Amino acid sequence: MQLLNLKNQALALIDQAGSPEELKQLQIDLLGRKSELNQTLKTLAKLPPEEKINLGRQVNETKNAIESALNERRQQLGGRTDQWLDVTAPGKQPPLGHLHPISQAIEEIQRLFEHLGFTRVRYPEVDWDWYVFEALNMPADHPARDEWETIFIDAPKHPKLGQMVLTTHTSNGQVREMERVKTPPIRMLNIGKCYRRQQDPTHTVMFHQFEGLVIDKGISIPHLKGTLDYFGREFFGPKIKSRIRPFHFQFTEPSFEVDFTCTACSGRGCRFCKSGWVEVGGAGMVHPNVLKAGKIDPRVFSGFAFGWGVERVLRLKPGLNIDDIRMLYSSQPEFLNQF
Ligand code: PHE
Q1: pLDDT at residue 84 above 80?
Q2: Exposure of 248 by Cβ count < 10 A (0-12 exposed, 13-18 middle, 19+ buried)?
Q3: Site to substitute for ligand 1 among 308, 310, 311, 312, most atoms within 8 A of C-beta
Q4: CB of 35 shorter than 6 A to ligand 1
Q5: Ligand 1 centre from 210 Cα, in Å?
Q6: Mean of the pLDDT values across residues 73-94?
């Protein structure tokens, strides 16, 4: 109560002050060492803690009110104020975000293949069975389909294209691209989201793949190998080599698994890779039945295709060492800000 009175009296005095000099004197009387406010402050030390906090807060509020009234009146009287503006002070940088590491990797992969003349395309994330399996030489009930732990959409079947599924791989773009371009040459890079029923440190239900498809006259395995080597050098580093091993996919013949030199040990062999090589995905020469499904004559044209996970190659980048790719989707700024 006492303080409230003090404040009201002080504000009235400040309001009545007629010159900057008068204000200066008031500042000394009201806030100075001998002021009532300062005396009150001195009694604080002897009070019990609870009262101390309470009174302390009131003293501070009173002091702030008096100070800002003094400033305001000073401004009105045309004197200098305690407020200042340094126009030469460096500005405050608002925090700037950046692209998600997966988006950065996608951009890098796209740029790298554009140098070889590939065109980036996007095809549906929810697609018909036909493009995802059937046209890729996997008829209904073919056991090879089991490889793709497919999530089906609960929707009516299309009379010709079958059931709707979440795309399990970017290979659904192969026949779609043949339909779009019609006559080769085709140099497609399809990057998109894929979905499978899986969840562990190296697999997430939603992930990204990129798929290359090249079709022309006289395309053979060395073209594929050269493209893989180029990718390895550009994405992982100049000393990285690729290796292809026989494998099986319904939509390529012959089919391969693709390995790159381990980036952790430069191919010497370590705890992580054991053999010096790390497997990244699949590849092969486009099966004649797939070309036929895309209305391209396999007697005239041949092609190669490859496809694998963006997350997979990102975690292998030298120096990254991402043990658990689920971290990439954790939305933790502490993790994402490192990229
Ligand atoms: N689509 C295959 C997969 O998801 C990879 C692949 C692409 C294999 C192209 C051969 C050719 O595993």
Answers
A1: no
A2: middle
A3: 308
A4: no
A5: 10
A6: 78
